[in-house]
Each structure stands twice: as structure tokens, then as C-alpha cells.
């Protein structure tokens, strides 16, 4: 499956700001199941300085600076990717019993084991809590394979929590999300991560996109898609396995991975610092995920 993803972010300031310093995580990753065919980043006004790097988690990051007055900013990332369906460990009954996975994750001393163990720790937006750990336990029967148990937890979050874009913001505490049982994709990912870390299972946050199909009989809307988020759990015998609690499914050929980290704070699509005053600024984000014809299609 091939896709073209166009992600455009616009900021409009009530008066010109003097300069801005920005960081983006907008370039999708290359993984065993995902190949980046092309990627471009267009910034207006044109930056005075731009640099690229690979961050601690292997994500592609672009930094740019605009050092002259500007009253608007537009950043457009365009990427073509090809996806293959990942293996489904739940369907094939794969994975360690979750208790064994916990013991193995907590005992290794090799560099790879230590890198995984970092995802057991609390992070800026995800704090383990006894009530969240207790909520998770209902999905983890004795001896149950880890992928199956996490899949069950994913289904419960999808059932128990309502998707409500008006209920939370990026700064809404996880405690409130759990209490009010409402939120958006990033909240559900953070919730699952906190549940798993509380049990001793390494879990990370994944940002990206998902193809959304229009309602029957209606035209597909350009820019109607949005950034998406899900989580991955680590089974020492299989590696990282992705789960999408918002849609109650394991990501496959409709999910495009951009970046991963401890939580949203590590992989924000666009963030920065501005100087000169911006109270009353307006922002708009439009994402378009377009399926491209395969080589064997007309």
C-alpha cells in the first residue's frame, strides 16, 4: 500500500513577531514494514537557518529559525510511503507469558535491554498511578501471552472511554482523563502506556497518521485527516508491537508511523519559541492522507 501524506500547519499572529525558533517531527520513519519513498518540507517565510538531525530515539528532526519580523508561518510536509502488513502475533498465538516478559525486561544488562527498560520509567506526560495499574490488571490473567493481554486492554480502553475532541487539551492531566473517561487519541495512548508501565511492561508512544475513509456515497474531503497517535508494547521474544486504542485495532497498512518516544512531548509535530508578542495567535492544521495507486494498478 502506498500513500502520500500532506501535513500543513499555519500560524497567524495579530502583530509581527521579531523571530522564532522551531523544531519539527514531520518526517516519517523507515521501519521493516514502512519505506519512505520521498519527503519534502516547505517553510514560509523562508528560514534564515535550517538543520536536520536524528534524535535519541532515531526520529528525523528538522530545526529552523526565522530571524526577521513575520506575522504568519506555514510549514508543509509532504511524504510518500509504502507499507507492508506487519505480522499479527495475537492471531498466531505468539509472545511470552506476560509475567515472563516482565521478568525478562527487568533483568537484562545489554545495551538493547537497557534501551527498552527506559520505557518502564515515568515520563513528562505519563505518570504511573495505582488506580491505572489496577485498571490494567483485569486484562492480564495468569500465564496469558503478552500480545493477547495488551490487545484485551486496548479493547477495554476503546469501550470504556469516549472519543471527545472537546474534552481535553495537550496539557490535560492523565488523572482527569481517567476520571472523566473522555479524551482523544493521544490521551488513550498515554493511558495505555501508564497502565502497562505500572505492570512492568515497557511501552512507548507512537505518532503518525491513519487513512480515514469517507462515509458511503460522499466525496473524500481533502485535509479532513489528522495526526494520530497510538502505543507500542514490548515483548522480549517479538520486539515492539503496535496497538491503536482509539480504533480498537492493531495498526497495519492504514497507519503511517512518523516518530516514537516516551510520550507526546518527545515527538510533537511542530513546536517552538517566538519573540515579540503573540497573544491572540491563531493556528490551523490540515492533514491529507491520500492512497496512491500501486504499480500493478492503472
From TrEMBL:
GO molecular function: peptidase activity
Alphabetical keyword list: Hydrolase, Protease
Alphabetized Pfam families for the sequence: Bact_transglu_N, Transglut_core
Domain (Transglutaminase-like): residue spans on this chain: 177-247
GO BP of this protein: proteolysis
Keyword Hydrolase: yes
SMART domains cross-referenced by the UniProt entry: TGc
Protein name: Transglutaminase-like enzyme, putative cysteine protease
Organism in which the protein naturally occurs: Aquisalimonas asiatica
